[in-house]
Amino acid sequence: MTQRVADAAGTSPRERLLEAAIDHFGRHGIGDTSLRGIAEAVGTSHRMLIYHFGSREGLLVEVTRAVEARQRAVMAATYDADLPPLEAAAKYWEETVEATLRYGPLFFELASHAMQGKAHAASLREELIAAWLPQVTELCRAIGIPDDQAETHARLALGAARGLLLDLLVSGERDEVARAADLLNRLLLMSAAAGGVRDA
Question: How does DSSP classify residue 145?
């Protein structure tokens, strides 16, 4: 009966386990929990997690990928809500901060694994920039950044935002970091109003 209900809802055992892990980490943090500890927390066995994700690291990569995809969806929904640009940016920043406080340490740990070329993080290496850049580039175009500069501005925005989130996790200075994020958004709008940055 449970399997039929799950199939009808369009979810697989792997998807349900991934969702349970995301929920668990969101409430309790990542820490140094072993695969057995994670399995116990989400109501399964470590063998089942190995079957679906290969390893503890494989599970954590999939959690990170899923959280990143959700943040991209939140960004799209926020900027599609017909809010003024700075208001939309502030709202999305707060959403991002909340997610970062829960999942940020895992993101940066696995990003470092991707940079080091570790096999379990190969998919992240391919997606950390490439999955975000088109969407952020379109947002830059939407605020008036010229087409020939939109991707460059998007790289700046993405890199600066991630740097500020790292600042948040290290310093804990939420208000100061929020002010810096607001300045970043204002500078992007100033660049748009000026028609981009032209060579001297």
Answer: -
Helix orientation angle between 85-115 and 56-79, rounded to the nearest 10 degrees: 160
Alpha helices (H) along 34-173? 35-42, 46-53, 56-79, 85-115, 122-127, 133-142, 147-171
Residue 159 identity = G
43 in the Ramachandran plot: left (φ > 0), alpha (ψ -120 to 50) or beta?
Answer: left
In the numeric block, which tokens belong to residue 186? 């204002």
Summarize pLDDT for 151-165 with one digit per residue, the tens: 999 999 999 999 999
Query: Can you give the pLDDT at residue 120?
Result: 87
Give me the pLDDT at residue 4, please. Answer: 36
Q: What are the two backbone dihedrals, phi and then psi, of residue 100, each rounded to the nearest 5 degrees? A: -65, -40
How many angstroms separate the first and last alpha carbons of the chain? Answer: 69
97, 99, 103, 108: CA torsion to nearest 10: -50
Return the residue matching tokens 């895992």. 106
pLDDT category at 82 given cuts 50, 70, 90 is confident
Closest CA to 65 of 117, 7, 21: 21
- Which residue reads 């640009």 in tokens? 85
Are 178 and 93 contacting, i.e. CB atoms less than 8 angstroms apart?
yes
> Which is it for the CA torsion 74, 154, 106, 88, positive or negative?
negative
Look at residue 10 in the predicted model and tell me its pLDDT: 54
Both structure tokens of 5: 């209900």
How many CB atoms are closer than 10 A to CB 106? 18
